[in-house]
User: What shape does this take?
Amino acid sequence: MKVALTPPSRLFTSDNAGGAHPDVIAAMVRANEGHALAYGQDNYTREAKQLFSKLFDADVRTEFVFGGTGANVLALACMLRPAEAVVCSSWAHIASDETGAPERILGAKLIDLPSSDGKLRPEDLQSVAYMLGNLHHAQPAVVSITQATELGTLYSAVEVRELCDTAHEMGMLVHMDGARLANASAALGATPEALRSFTIDAGVDVLSFGGTKAGIIFGEAVVFLNPNLGERVEFIRKQVTQLHSKMRFISAQYIELLRDGLFFRLGTQANAMSMALYERTKHHQSLGLVTPPAVNSLYPRILEPARRALQDWSFFWDWDTAADQVRWMTAWDTTLADVDAFAKGIESVL
Ligand SMILES: Cc1ncc(COP(=O)(O)O)c(C=O)c1O
Assistant: This one.
């Protein structure tokens, strides 16, 4: 079986497959002019940090790192003391996709709890309460949740608040891995107010703020919504090898992403394209696409030989081969023409 059509010009593999938005590239080129102080002492970094405080309407502390794994490790390193542990879902990127970086670098235990949809709930936190105060257990000290989750699901602002309230009542802090924060924000309102409603207003303490999947080249931000937790961040960042000397290049990208709402617009585009793909394919009952995507990914089932034929034509990743499940993911630059071309290919083999 073969697909004999023109493939879409963009892939449906991952939101990291796209390039960077042209305005971000232009901002990088402008930042390339002349010299600037290194290690974050430059004006770009000052301005980018101010934009984060404006976005959250609070005096937050923001520090930049190279990537998402580094952001998570740095955030957690600032939140943990010796003999403390992180509670997360077993789907969490920190538990399943960071090659053990958190365990190795933090020297801390991850307590990864089963979750069918990638989300944690207050009762999950209660399930580790028996460890608190028991000297034979690493002490659960941080709850790490992902928004949007690794399974393409979303916490509502109320759900995050309930989780934060429970965590805080139990003496724990809350970290949010926001590698797909642009998609989550877009799904929940696409405004700074919407973003605040499920982060700072809900009680999240520290946020890994994702820019790479949202349309920049590289560089993530760790935002201390509770600025006291960032007291030692500059030392810890250097120790965990996440200090970029030419920091202005990360900062210039964030200025572009935040100054005029590009962050929300690009997240909205990615989400809209996964919705469009859903609309064009949901009538194929064998795909099992029973609910619309919450953000920018779909997890259909495709049997062989159709799966291989489609992947040979326009590659996408398997998700759960035992269940014949794959992942289709849209990015900030996916267009309707891409979706139409991809949907036609799917149609041709089903
Ligand atoms: C949920 C989540 N967190 C963090 C990351 C960041 O990882 P990286 O270190 O590849 O930038 C990713 C990337 O895929 C992710 O999906």
Summary: Strands lie at 61-65, 84-89, 109-113, 139-146, 173-178, 206-209, 220-224, 297-298, 317-320, 325-329.
